[in-house]
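Incident log, structure service

09:12 report received: a user says their structure output differs between two submissions of the same chain.
09:20 pulled the input from the user's history:
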Amino acid sequence: MVASDEAEKLWSVHPSAAIGSPVDLGDADAVARALRAEVDRYEHHRGQQLSVPALATAAGHEHRARPGLDATVVLGGIDETGSHVFAIGVDDGVVESDYAAAGTGRQSASGVLDRADTDSFSIADARDLVASAIESAAARDPRTGPAVDVAEIRLEGVDIHRYESTAAVRS
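09:34 re-ran on a clean worker, output below:
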């Protein structure tokens, strides 16, 4: 769901992880700031990076601490054990899966994501899949907007890009 095409929806919260929310509430931004602080504290005291599953646990705690944030947030990242995707919600807790979708168009987007074979996926393949999932959601949900934010997550870092259309995501 897009309440505003201008609102920030993705935040880098770790050297190789990002969190996204379908809503532009201040609570989602507060969760991202709290997670960045937690990562900084952990790395300062331990001298090593926080694992993505441990980050997901911290995100679950932060999410539950903000009852005004009633939307599911998605955390994606990569660490020494591989890639991870978590859906973090008020009712469902923290759930790891191959993919996650949030917002009012999640059912339509999930249908596209369910059919994808992601065993050997390139960044270009992932962009195309994201564009197809957003197109499916937008065709069935009037609250899904045309702008697309994409976080490309690698061990070397997180790059967040804003595209004005799904066609631009594919280019």
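09:41 both user submissions now match this output. Likely a transient worker issue. Closing.
09:42 reviewer note: The longest strand covers residues 82-89. The chain has one domain: 10-170.
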